[in-house]
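The passage that follows is intended for readers who have already worked through the single-chain material. We present the inputs for a multi-component assembly, then the predicted structure in tokenized form, and finally a short commentary. You are encouraged to pause after the input and sketch how you expect the pieces to fit together before reading on.
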Amino acid sequence: MDSSRRRVLQLFGISSLALMTRPVYNALATEKHAQKAKEQMIRGDKALTAKQWAMVIDTRQFESAEDMEPLIEACNKIHNIPHFENQRHEIKWLWEDHYHNVFPGKGARFLSEAVESRPFLVLCNHCENPPCVRACPTQATFKRASDGIVLMDFHRCIGCRFCMAACPFGARSFNWRDPRPFIKETDPKFPTRTKGVVEKCNFCAERLAEGKLPACVEAAEGKLAFGDLYDPDSEVRELIKTNYTIRRKQELGTEPCVYYIV
Amino acid sequence: MKDKKLIVTGVIIFLIIATFPFWYNRGKAAPMPELELTAKAKAAKVCVRSTEYMRADHMQLLDKWREKVVREGDRIYVSPSGKQYNMSLSNTCLDCHSNKAQFCDRCHDYASVRPYCWDCHLDNSKEKT
Ligand code: SF4
Ligand code: SF4
Ligand code: SF4
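Having made your guess, compare it with the prediction:
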């Protein structure tokens, strides 16, 4: 009995000594690095900011798929998007589709021919209430708090494709193969992706950081507008206010931030 | 214990096989890799942080950069000396160290680490030479 009590007391003593070592060690360590360096990570002064970025597409100004080519080309080029012949391997950030696929359920009988035959530009809607973000188990897909862009952190993506199942707009593509050999011309400024990750439009976050508008908006020469949805004086708000706009599958409640003037 | 002989032989053979790499490579430690600095890196004299820090902790720094750039959109690094850098592996680090094979790879090979950064991040030095 006696000896066991002594043992317990000894153990307590030793453990408390052990617990003290770390603070002591830390104190010594910081002393050694007394001139401990102060670093900072900041946003550039030129960076464009918004509460929620949004896009308005004036579909009346696009007559054929050729009108969209330069926009899609611009996006593909700067983001190192591969081109696969096999449709099932396709990687799409920005593409063109028919009215009935873009706005299912909105096909009125005897629909305006002009609208029905018009090509529509589609991309990730950067939803305000994005189901892809909720589905992602690793937070590889997240909604950036600072400006509402729904972004991908490729480092974290495990390729489970839950997000693809959750996105009602088919805005996401999966890399079934190593994309590198299928990139026509690699842009050294942007990374490529690797096999096994999902990707999609990033609203050109890397360009906004440098004070530039998205590449597709720049290439569209006024047919697309980009701005802050929560700034009542922004160009997008002005367009939404003065034109009749529709959004994709609005009834699902994801609150898409891409508006279409029809 | 009539299998004693068999067991002892087995144990000895096992020990020999298990320690094989140690005595086979005895005295043949690979020499420390020699890193080459490009003219640009030499001219710059300092990296974004001190050489000792970079040597020991560049991976932690890169990890911080990754978190900041990807998730928060802060892309400018202000070093303790007040200088600003664009936080980019392919376009800032490799701009000076544009000899990945003689700089990054030599040490990584020596330490037997295989960072998969380069599966996505471009080795722009390749294009330059
Ligand atoms: S369009 Fe799809 S991928 Fe884009 S934010 Fe909405 S749900 Fe997510
Ligand atoms: S595929 Fe990647 S981004 Fe999509 S849900 Fe899985 S981990 Fe998240
Ligand atoms: S916003 Fe940028 S990433 Fe998105 S479709 Fe346009 S060019 Fe591509």
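Commentary: Chain B has six helices and two strands. The first strand of chain B starts at residue 76 and ends at 78. How closely did your sketch match?
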